[in-house]
Amino acid sequence: MTNAARTGQTLLIVASTMLFAAFTSALVARRAGGDFGDTPLPVWLWASAPLALAASWAVERGFTRSAAAAGAALTASQLFYLGSLHIAQVDQAFRSVFVGAHAAHAAAGACALLLHGRSARLFWHFAGGLWIYVLALLGVWT
Amino acid sequence: MHLAIAIASLATACVLLFVQPRWWLPEAISAHARAYDAQLHVTLWVIGVLFAAAQGLLAFAVFRFRDRGQTPSATAGNHRLELVWTSVTAVAFLGLAIAGQGIWAAVHLQGAPNPLRVEVLAKQFAWSYRYAGPDGVFSAVEVKSIDDAGGNPFGVVDAKSDDIVTALLHVPAGRAVELRLKSRDVIHNFFVRELRIKQDVVPGMTIPLRFQAEKTGRYEIPCSELCGLGHHQMRSALVVMGAGEFEAWLREQQSR
Amino acid sequence: MKWFSTDHKVIGKQYIGLSLFAVLMGMVLSLLMRFHLVYPDTKVPLFQALWPEGAPGGVMTPELYLSLMTMHGTIMVFFVLTTAPQSGFGNCFLPPQIGAHDMAFPVLNMLSFWTTALSFAVLLMAFVVEGGAPLSGWTAYPPLSGLGKITGPGQGLGQDLWLVSIALFCAASLMAAINFITTVIELRAPDMGYFDMPLTAWAWFVTALISLFAFGVLLAGGILLLLDRNLNTAFFVPGGLIVNDRVEPRSGGSPILFQHLFWFFGHPEVYIAILPGMGVVSTVLSTFSGKKVFGYRAMAYALLAIGGLGFLVWGHHMFISGINPYSTIAFSVLTLAIGVPSAIKTFNWIATIWGGRLRFTAAMHYALGFVSLFITGGITGLVLGQPGLDLYFHDTYFVVAHFHLIMGVAAIFAIFAALHYWFPRMYGRTMNETLGKVHFYLTFAGVYALFVPMHFAGIAGNPRRYPDFKEYEFLQSLLPLHKGMTHAAYFLAAVQLLFLYNYFRSKRNGAEARGDVWGAGTREWRDD
Asked: What are chain C's domains?
């Protein structure tokens, strides 16, 4: 990829990190307040973790369209999860925020792969790693 | 030329406005308020000097170096000068910062023993106050018991509670008071100009605020955090009474 | 003009055009506010025609005043001060200054403008929906902003539209920030090292870096608030609330959390608003003194210091908010520390003109006026930055005077300077110098007349965001002061007609100008 593509994606990663850092700090602050809720994540959502990793692997190997398809599948599963989510407790509220924000990133990443091919892999890897982080945060730490 | 005059005269007008005798601060009615005024005056003097010096230098430079056909100097920097004025500024600013912390600490980090405790309730768009009554204990409250029309804005559960609820804040002069500020709906702000204290009242929190008034009188409490369309009419008053007068007022309230 | 052009020069002018429209709207709103403050009971048929519900009988209701105030702040901060200085002039002149032929991502550039325009359109829609525009101020603190229309008129759909508008603006700003930073890092000409860049380029660079880190946090706060309002979450809603006699069932949220998120963005935002102007002033002063900027490296480092330190001081907007009183001490020290690089810049500006040969063009007037106003506005920061003194001044007109002098005046003067200075490069003509200078002097006197007396209202304890002063005698006694300020405001507004006339007439009939008109020597003046 060109230098501009690399720099631009790096900056996008910074901006996105700030967004998720803000959400995370809200989560940490809110969790200290008690009555957080403890619904487990649906089992099938965990399957999206290997999906994200596979998508990153695919991009590295040059299978950008397959990776984009995996990204679309990830987004679809996130939207399905959001649709099924009934926000009654605080942990569910935060899930809607993190999953929704990530779905936007996954969709954007998939589009970027289709438009720009392997040049967009930096953002793609970030989005995948971010999803692992989100799953760990929502499913393990809270 | 004109510009130099404009800058100089505007700066002079500013300085004159700030030193002229008609002073806009309301009277200070506590030791804290007097300490506040002292720090404010020191700060205003410091910034006044800095202001006059900076504007004066600017006006002078504008005048002195106007185009009269001279060759501009080739200087593009002077490390020593930079270092000097950076250090002086840093010392002055940080000095001010440190000097000012005393007043803050006195209000928020220190407390007198055995203050008179009063609960303050802010809501759209009125203030209420609660005193503990002869038993010295604040009765339990719950949301279900709130009855504004019936004179129970705090929601005191026990109808026979000896708590005193009022619309104005009465305190005795010369006694430490500790307010416990609560809001029922949105953020409000408790402000008494003559005491020089101000505190946001945040729903979901109970925030302490301490003062000790020394001069009797009636002082405005204007809400000072935007709370809706009645924000400018959310008015109460601090009534400072002599110690004996206050006791009498308490007894009269209790007998109701 | 090609509407969806990806040419940086066109996009820059589009941003400037948008902000010109916005500033006129923001100014009209302020005139309405200042009128109502001093004549709250006067019947004005125009008000009734415009707002039958908000101004029945031609008398403005408090809620209408507060909504005009909210929109005034929002429009001025976002659509004037966060557009023209950075994306307006920056788009026009950053690429040529560093030897690039366009921004790094031209299509993204076009998208960032149109997202900004969409954001503005969404905001303006709040005026016309049921309930009208929100009344919670440009700061939109929950719970007032977080519970829906039960807290007041305009807090229904109006507040949601406001939040969507801000979210769009965040996206647009992040797109622009990515573009600007990539352009500086990757597209500089081979002989243009970082420390060869003009200070305007430095200012746009640092401003973009600030935006990159700040806007994501605002977006987060806005999203969480939208969720509280529409999906029954409780990020900012504490328990036990009774609003309008209705018990709010949600609990556990923190109103102060919103303030942290908002001001973590909000303080860097004011540096986003002023840094490009500082860059312009450095350039203009240097050009018209015939000297290099004094202490170029110190100036560049000062920009970086202000940008970096700017992220550590947000708590000074929250001294009285109920945060830990020890943390306020830390925020206070850092706040006064950030005054140091600002002071360095002021000294360096004076040192730049010192020993020079000063040519008093209109642009030079505005640049020198900026320095004067920056001193006046900035110096009261030393008062407000002390929490012990903020105990009285928070939420009074002292604060309003402070931020208007810096943002509402100094930053605007930098825009005037930039317009006069770069007009030949943008339109091939010069603006009328005499008219520019007359406009300058009248505006300069006018802003001092309007905002310096405002400090005294604050010293008297005059709270902010009051639609009128009828309730309190101590405020009624300040009415003569307020009337003076209102007259100054109307005078100032009238004077701006001179500028508008100059600007639009010069675009068509101004004296033709080619090449490096002012002898600046920087690359954007070359015709190659």
From this structure: 8-238+254-525 (1.20.210.10)
